[in-house]
């Protein structure tokens, strides 16, 4: 897996981790674990009056019972009740088979102190069961250790560095012409952002890495505009990006969410890798040349 694929899959994982809720999150987790622990992970589905026996997955090799929790919004009272109910229920249903219990959640901020204390208290009451938590960092480590064909099965194909190297005008044309259909506003001047722009906008390592990879085809996008019969095409598309960015910024979305929405605006990171590569090249080009995200703060020398 090269850097372009690594950043792309890292961002796809992050989006899925933060987006999926409830049963959809359980399904995502089960699919990841089935790839990571082939033959040593058994997904569990509810069946009959006993449901899932307080278990969303079981790993026989170390006796781990997994329990997922991904509500639309974390509520401390509901979280503490969930931990206690699910752990005690698993103890009752699985008995000596359960040597380890892992609580899997989708709050990227981590669990509140009361929840961590509750887990510690349960561990003291049941010293024969090892307790653990799995959040974004732990699940990301599992995902990014997978082979490319497994990542493709989970998240679809993504462009590689070789895809970007092979990018040509024919791949750029439909992406740029689709963006051109946006209604432009008044024409502010194009201002090239500084090299510190990525840090200024608090983009994740994966989003920033993808933009850097896309810059490898900067000259191709520049050449496309230079050879296009309409000299105003570049400014039309730049203004379309500005308008879309300002609209997204007004909603107070996090930086990576805005980046994802701009990817969708430019054609989306789905379908053939060559098309995704074209979207990435175009987005990187305009990130460097117009008001997509904020420019870095310049400090004047005294």
Topology:
Elements: H1 3-19, H2 22-36, E1 42-43, E2 57-59, E3 64-69, H3 76-94, E4 100-105, H4 113-125, E5 130-134, H5 136-144, H6 148-155, H7 161-165, H8 169-180, H9 197-200, H10 205-214, H11 218-227, H12 233-250, H13 255-265, H14 273-289
Helix pairs in contact: 1-5, 1-10, 3-4, 8-14, 10-14, 12-13
Structural account:
With 302 residues, the chain is an alpha/beta fold. The protein has 2 domains: 141 residues, Trna Endonuclease, Chain: A, domain 1 (3-Layer(aba) Sandwich); 131 residues, no CATH class. 56% of the residues lie in helices and 7% in strands. It contains 14 helices and 5 strands. Strands 1-2-3-4-5 form a 5-stranded mixed sheet. α4 links the parallel β4 and β5. α3 runs parallel beside α4, α8 crosses α14 and α12 packs antiparallel against α13.
């Amino acid at each position: 897996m090269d850097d372009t694929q690594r950043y792309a899959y890292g961002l796809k994982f992050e989006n899925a981790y933060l987006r999926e809720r409830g049963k959809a999150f359980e399904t995502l987790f089960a699919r990841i674990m089935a790839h990571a622990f082939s033959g040593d992970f058994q997904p569990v589905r509810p069946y009959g009056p006993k449901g899932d026996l307080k278990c969303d997955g079981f790993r026989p090799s170390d006796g781990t019972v997994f329990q997922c929790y991904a509500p639309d919004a974390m509520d401390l009272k509901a979280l503490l009740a969930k931990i206690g109910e699910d752990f005690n229920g698993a103890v009752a249903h699985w008995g000596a088979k359960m040597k380890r219990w892992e609580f899997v959640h989708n709050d990227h901020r981590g669990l509140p102190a009361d929840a961590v204390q509750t887990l510690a208290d349960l561990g003291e009451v049941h010293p024969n069961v090892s307790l653990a938590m799995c959040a974004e960092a732990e699940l990301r480590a599992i995902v990014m250790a997978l082979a490319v064909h497994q990542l493709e099965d989970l998240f679809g194909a993504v462009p590689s560095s070789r895809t970007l190297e092979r990018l040509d005008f024919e791949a750029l044309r439909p992406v740029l012409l689709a963006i051109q259909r946006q209604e432009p506003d008044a024409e502010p001047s194009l201002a090239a952002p500084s090299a510190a722009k990525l840090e200024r906008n608090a983009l994740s390592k994966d989003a920033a890495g993808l933009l850097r990879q896309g810059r490898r085809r900067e000259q191709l996008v520049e050449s496309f505009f230079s050879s296009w019969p309409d000299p105003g095409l570049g400014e039309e598309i730049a203004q379309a990006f500005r308008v879309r960015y300002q609209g997204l910024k007004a909603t107070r979305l996090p930086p990576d969410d805005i980046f994802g929405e701009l990817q969708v605006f430019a054609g989306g990171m789905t379908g053939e890798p060559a098309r995704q590569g074209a979207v990435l090249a175009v987005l990187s080009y305009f990130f460097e040349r117009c008001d997509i995200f904020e420019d870095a703060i310049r400090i004047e020398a005294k």
